[in-house]
Amino acid sequence: MMDAMKRRWVPYLFLSPYMLFYVAFGLIPILFSFYVSLTSWDGIGKKTFVGLDNYAFLFNPDSYFFTSVGNTLLFVAVSLPLQMAFGLAIAALLYSKFVKWKAFFQLVNFLPYIVTPVAVGLMFNLLFDWQAGFVNKLLLEFGLIEEGIYWLGEPLYARIVIVLMLFWKGFGYTMIFYLAGLANISKDLHEAAAVDGATGMKAFWTITLPLLRPVTTFVAITGIIGGFQLLEEPMLLLGGAGMGSASAVIGGPERCCLTTVWNMYDTAFGSTTRYGLGSAIAYGLCVIIAVFSFIGTKFYREES
């Protein structure tokens, strides 16, 4: 009897370090941040309980909550399909028999994804600097423009730069998953299709692409979740030397590039130091991610 009891508790003994760390650094901060979201607190003085006032203030334009959510959705809606389409094309090319040195090209295409967000933001800031940036110099050299474009000072151009940055960083991630998906497709299906006369693009559209739907759904879900966590890249991009005097504007010109996490960070730790409102923004973002995750998981189960 005692031996059976010991065997039953042994797994919990080995799990206890993880559980203790999770409670200390995960569960308690989550519960504490929810409590803070119900208060007015600057991080130093006394907490004042305000109930749901912080959540109600999210609907106020001065909170920039829905502005930041709209910006984030725009970046995800434009960059993610580009990442998936280009990643699939590169994966199909590398999986074919026409490409040599496949491991080398896989590494080269995946490297941007593992570059730190700080480095990515600073690199694109230097590339699109309106005075000394490489992009402007190249366009001027070929005579495509007469004067340097203020890439990071105009809302449209700034958004284009962020979309390009997210595309460059993310397509290698989608490529890896599509390569794994292509490897799991039985070659017998393509051989049977070739016998029936379906080759090339026809076989790709009728066999390969439908069988990659679970991978596509998974990449879309993770891409949306990752997109809503966007912070370092636009913050470093729009806060460096390439911005000039506009760098003082949080979120770029007219706050056109203010993401939800950036808004939360600036509210809680930046210019206003409103921990309660920042926590409310964090929980609002949590609800949005949970909704997209639920919808994506439902589609994923249907496709699987």
From TrEMBL:
Belongs to the binding-protein-dependent transport system permease family. One of its GO terms (biological process) is transmembrane transport. This is Multiple sugar transport system permease protein/cellobiose transport system permease protein. Keywords: Cell membrane, Membrane, Sugar transport, Transmembrane, Transmembrane helix, Transport. It comes from the Bacteria. It is found in: Cell membrane. Residues 69-296 form the ABC transmembrane type-1 domain. Pfam families: BPD_transp_1. One of its GO terms (cellular component) is plasma membrane. It comes from Paenibacillus catalpae. The chain crosses the membrane at residues 12-36, 73-95, 107-128, 211-231, 280-300. Its main location: membrane. It is a multi-pass membrane protein.
